[in-house]
Amino acid sequence: MMFSKACEYGIRAAVYVALQSLDGRRVSVNEIAEEIDSPIAFTAKILQQLSRSKVIHSVKGPTGGFELDRTEMDTVKLSMIVHAIDGDDIYVGCGLGLKECNANQPCPLHDKFVDIRTDLKNMLENTSLYELATGLEVGLTYLKR
Amino acid sequence: MMFSKACEYGIRAAVYVALQSLDGRRVSVNEIAEEIDSPIAFTAKILQQLSRSKVIHSVKGPTGGFELDRTEMDTVKLSMIVHAIDGDDIYVGCGLGLKECNANQPCPLHDKFVDIRTDLKNMLENTSLYELATGLEVGLTYLKR
DNA sequence: CCAATAAAGGACATTTTTGTCCTATTTATT
DNA sequence: AATAAATAGGACAAAAATGTCCTTTATTGG
Q1: What ranges make up the beta strands (E) of chain A?
Q2: What is the domain class of B5-137 according to CATH?
Q3: Tens digits of residue pLDDT in A9-25
Q4: How many Cβ pairs closer than 8 A exist between chain A and B?
């Protein structure tokens, strides 16, 4: 609707990793894909991206998996995940696809989009994985279905 | 960023048709594609969709083309174009791609998305082609580049 | 050291979106 | 009636996004 499928899986995966990390549990790709109801191999690719972008931490070998430490959960905001996967489309792009749309040379929707985008941007930049994981932990929110 | 490419072209095309219709000019696919800087044949398909959805009016044969009458420009809102081309994804879909995300069983971002989507929805439902075309006419906004 | 386990990564397959080309249909003009 | 101009529509092509499979690399525990 707004993010790519890859980004949707990425956010859900990161939130699940955060949730389990609250209990000190490291989680595997298989478990993540199972718990967020996503295709395993594709999810593995996305987790690689997130790991390369330092959004989550990965450990190879037996007992390995993905994790986040408590401080990272606070510092990692949704905007970092979206940026790592979808790039800066949401921030930069014109709603009507113009290359050089800006306040000087705006598309007909420019001003109307500015407000909506600002709200979205603020939301993404102010929402941490910790915040999302705790909602899940308490059973208020869900990651599947 | 938010709409498909097809929808971006569709909105730009419809606004251009409205603009020219203000002067009583009927416009061809070729002229539209030229003026909004879009691929001709693809634009033709999109105009077909808009015509079938009664968003714009088409006339075949010599002197034919696309047009809108003054009353239609007021009644046609952006939401109708978006709906005709992209369906109701923007209205219905969960931000994280869950099938059954709602107030009872929300995804972690549900509440945060509700506000943003409501604003987007209101904007689309309250913006008419007439409003957008007049901005263009006065030279305040642009449809290319 | 060896075996097993888990992520990393490359190559490939499928699906969707975007885009093109050609023919058919409609209609105004002569 | 013939011609030409315009949209309608079907079939195809290319590109991007999504998704799978298999091999390599790192690491743990026996």
Answers
A1: 57-59, 65-67
A2: mainly alpha
A3: 999 999 999 999 999 99
A4: 103
